[in-house]
Amino acid sequence: MIATIFKKELLDTLRDRRTLITMIFIPVLIFPFIMTIFMKVSESFSKEAAEKPLNIGIIAPEKHADFVQSFNAAPKTLGKNILVPIQDTLKMQELIRQDSLQFGIFLAPDFEQKLRAKTPAEVYIFHNVTEIGMKDRAEAYMDYLSRLAEQKRYSELKIQASELEPYALDYRNVASDKETIGKLIGGFLPYLFIIFGFIGCMYPAIDLFTGEKERGTLETLLTTPVSRWQILVGKMGVVVLSGIMAATFTLIGIFLSIEVFQLVKDPRLLEVIHQILTLKFILLLYLLLIPMITFFAGIMIPIAVNAKSFKEAQSVITPLNMVVILPAMVGFFPGVELNAITACIPVVNVVLSTKELIAGTLDIGLLFLSFGTMVLLAVLMVTLSYKRFDKERNLVA
Amino acid sequence: MIEVNHLRKEFELTKTQRKELDTKDRIAVAVDDISFTCQPGRIFSLLGPNGAGKTTTMRMLSTLFKPTSGDIRIQGVDAVKNPEEARRLIGFLTGSTGLYARLTPNELIRYFANLYGVSKADYEPRKKYLFDLLNMNEFQNKRIGKLSTGMKQKVSICRTMIHDPQVVIFDEPTSGLDVITAENIIHLIRDCKNQGKTVIFSSHIMSEVDLLCDDLAIVHQGKIAYQGTMESFRENMQTPNLTAEFIRIVHENTKS
Q1: Which residue has the higher pLDDT, B164 or A266?
Q2: Cβ–Cβ contacts within 10 Å for residue A314, how many?
Q3: ipTM attached to this prediction
Q4: What's the angle, vertex CA B179, arms to CA B176 and CA B180, rounded to 5?
Q5: Which chain B residues contact residue A393 at CB under 8 A?
Q6: pTM for the complete prediction?
Q7: In a 10 Å sphere around its CB, with 0-12 CB exposed, 13-18 middle and 19+ buried, how is residue A252 labelled?
Q8: Is residue B84 less than 8 Å (CB to CB) from chain A?
Q9: What's the pLDDT tens digit per position in B33-49?
Q10: Is B66 on the interface with A (CB under 8 A)?
Q11: A247: pLDDT strictly greater than 60
Q12: What does the domain layout of chain A look like in residue ranges?
């Protein structure tokens, strides 16, 4: 009987346009869409920022001609520049705010004197941080000018630059690329799975319980010789499957972005992603996702059963999204680690376990603690769902 | 046969319901000590004004609600103790019956046949008989959502009868339907009687009752205000017509 109900509910759900959109289309398209937008926007910004000729304001007495002439000798990689003499810093700040100048340089009045005395000479660089990439270009110019001044000073002092470097520092990263990338961006993947797992459950949960009650089909179903728990399990199975399918389609979207649309250009990153997306990773991911999505379904079903109308159910379940999003975002914070405590916090445990799984540093004991916690919570929520579903007043509109 | 003895149904009122009803009572009695018997091959009507307790009684008969006290026996099966077994014997139809709009009549009938445990051997001839009888062959593969009200009602009838139930419960079956669609239901009720099935239907339309039923009970404020055969009801009328007599009985039994 459970299988009969499950099959019918699945067929009914797969014919619902709203469910198809939230379960298949959005999850498949979201990752390629985000990736494309991100790549295109960042590419165009960095290209524009790198190619844009710079109007650089300068406040400097004429005797600092050396400093000014260094700009003309700047390498082509720094881009074209036009030096604009400015009278005072107030005017310079105003022109930078208007983007007439991209940045401005103010040499202190005792600049020359300090250079001669071989003490640090103050140079004030004015920039607008909201103009993306301009600070980087200002820094590139100033690095170049500083290096020129350093070389001049070394030759005046008749010393080699290496003589002032007592240590040859060499930092070696012991973490693998997979671990580094896993820890840095590993929080993003479980976030997507959790959000779409939740959204994927939403419409079927409301439709199969509140919707049926509203349309009068639940009453008919309950007069058939099928027990209420069988009806609940059959329907709940479809709600859980919808959530899992939404998460699966998110995974397919990631696969399409990488393998078909080839949106990841960096070969090092691509190699790491291939190392991450293994069959073992996918199986362990589902080990965590299945009880978590059952837990989500178990939260939604009692609400859907209690609600008198589709609208009422929607207005209660939709804000729950936020309750799920917040713990799912824990994965973005560096320093929050999977331990015996976090493994017992629902959603947080799945995010952190997946993050560790991606980084290849997952402790198997903590994985099972996370899994056990989610299974326990899922069982509790299924029991609660049954209790609500068994109440007469919740069964008829 | 349906045997109902001292049936009572209480509902616990929520805070909101108490406010809406302007009462301090925590319990509302919807059905209070109702007893009756419906015989095979006869049509029993449960008549009463809105809110009399008809639908609650019908929902208890179909085991959707559990009685607070009292017995229900469907073809000898204790419907309170063995609700699933009792449901196997029942066909239940209401005027507000919903259908799955995204399924076709074929898919829906197959689904309910499976739920009622109709064997493969019985299913095909039964389906053919009902589809022919109700002229459903033309639209059997169209989505139910695209069908007219009359077509949908035919699907509902087919759904109710696919497992050939011995007891058929109709809860205000013609409510909200147009005359032509309502006529299909009237035919169905008569057919059920002719086939020797036990038929119970609730209504507040006296003309429908007059047309169909053999026995009737008038329910008012959860209690039975009148019970007897249609024949004796007509014979003992104190007013010129059936509707006036129904109103007289209801007024006579209204609690102040």
Answers
A1: B164
A2: 17
A3: 0.87
A4: 115
A5: 11
A6: 0.79
A7: middle
A8: yes
A9: 999 999 999 999 998 88
A10: yes
A11: yes
A12: 2-32+177-394, 51-163
